[in-house]
Design a protein that fits this description.
By secondary structure, the protein is α/β, with parallel strands linked by helices. It has a single domain, classed as P-loop containing nucleotide triphosphate hydrolases (Rossmann fold), CATH 3.40.50.300. It has nine helices and eight strands. It has a five-stranded parallel beta sheet with strand order 2-6-1-7-8. Strands 3-4-5 form a three-stranded antiparallel beta sheet, covered by helices on one side. α1 packs across α9 and α3 runs parallel beside α5. It is globular. The chain starts with 6 loop residues before the first strand and ends with a helix. It binds 2'-deoxycytidine-5'-monophosphate.
Length: 218
């Protein structure tokens, strides 16, 4: 059987910097990139627009399997509309964490995520990349940082994108989201078997990227 293209799986909690690191590692290796969190954010946004309750597992599962999602030139399109900025709003991140608890939603997104595994390779970030979606990944990284460091990063990201943000609310939401993502029954955030942990609280982006590349190439 021909071997599948290699995957580097980078999982970790909200605002740990995994997206930034994953994009740069993918660029350095010339690999494809999958931001799986964007898919859950898309389900959150689309379901909010049609007025679905975030607890309606069956309807959310159906919606997830019918969405037209396109990633193009760094933009995310939902049914052809550019929703790249709308996806980053904090309430959408919170709702993404709520809709992501449903097995129906997760199952609907498995095939799409695995379709990103193409030559010469893939860097995928999220919560269950190394544990569920790509359990045979060549390298699994659990990328984390202190709550304070993550809160500060998220604050800067939101302000830079023109959203308003309040540090106290952000830290509370972050901890709530961590707890939901880590304790759900289906594909919770955990340190996958064989994963290497990287705490980036005191690392620059460049140092974190170099460490992941060294692990992969070493
Ligand atoms: O990575 P992010 O913060 O954009 O993800 C938003 C939410 O989506 C996150 O709180 C939980 C969910 N998610 C998930 O359940 N599984 C993934 N692989 C990625 C994200």
């Amino acid at each position: 059987m021909p071997s599948l293209p290699p995957v580097i799986a980078i999982d970790g909690p909200t605002a740990s910097g995994k997206g930034t690191v994953a994009v740069l590692v993918a660029e350095a290796l010339g690999f494809h990139y999958l931001e799986s969190g964007a898919l859950y954010r898309l389900v959150a946004l689309a379901s909010e627009r049609v007025g679905l309750n975030s607890s309606d597992a069956v309807a959310l599962g159906q919606l997830s399997s019918t969405l037209s999602i396109t990633f193009k030139d760094g933009l995310v399109l939902l049914q052809g509309e550019d929703v790249s900025t709308a996806l980053r709003a904090e309430p959408i991140g919170k709702r993404a964490s709520e809709v992501a608890i449903h097995p129906q939603v997760r199952a609907a997104l498995v095939g799409l995520q695995r379709s990103f595994r193409q030559l010469p390779g893939l860097v995928a970030d999220g919560r269950d990349m190394g544990s569920v979606i790509f359990p045979d990944a060549s390298l699994k990284v659990y990328l984390t940082a202190s709550v304070l460091a993550r809160g500060q990063r998220r604050y800067k990201q939101l302000i830079a994108k023109g959203f308003s943000a309040n540090m106290t609310d952000l830290l509370r939401d972050l901890e709530e989201r961590d707890a939901r993502d880590q304790t759900r029954e289906n594909a919770p955030l955990l340190i996958a078997a064989g994963a290497k942990t990287l705490d980036t609280s005191d690392l620059s982006v460049d140092q974190a990227v170099r460490q992941v590349l060294a692990w992969y190439q070493g």
